[in-house]
Prior knowledge:
Number of strands: 3
Structural class: mainly alpha
Distance between the termini: 52 Å
Low-confidence stretches: none
Shape: elongated
Number of helices: 7
Order of helices and strands: HEHHEEHHHH
Amino acid sequence: MSSTLTPLSYVVLAMVGRSGASAYELVQMAESGQRLFWAGGASKIYAEPKRLAVHGYLEVEVRPGKRRPRPHYTLTDRGLEALQQWLGEPSPFPRIQSDAAIRVLAADLAPDDRVVASLQAMRTEIGELAAVLEAAERRAASVPHRDTQLAVMRDLAQRLLQAHLDWIDHATSLLTRHAD
């Protein structure tokens, strides 16, 4: 990995892909399904293509927008080469930051069923994320050259959501039984 490239850099390079994208489009992509795989604020996603352009990984062209001209980014040869090199590196197991898992760890310190209620509340967010995935599936037709890749990503996302629903059921069962 180049010293100028961060994990977010590779996310942005991958989302720019073959067709290019504006910073706004990158944020939209990140918020529609990619957020299951990468946590990053919109401000960082807006800033990263500018930084990558300064370092020669992206080329920027100003294009007309709805209200004003907007920068549109495309991969340079250097950006494509960096992305291809990174793609060939071994994929590590994902780091998972889970507030829910830490709540379960500390459940013996709570005087009542607060942790079970907290876990059950996650079902609402899982439902919202499932709706985001359904919308992403409908939009996938607009990028036919990435049909296979997007289908594989949606499959992983759906499996992650289902795994969490199953885990909530299991954890609730064990925690409720243990409290009795």
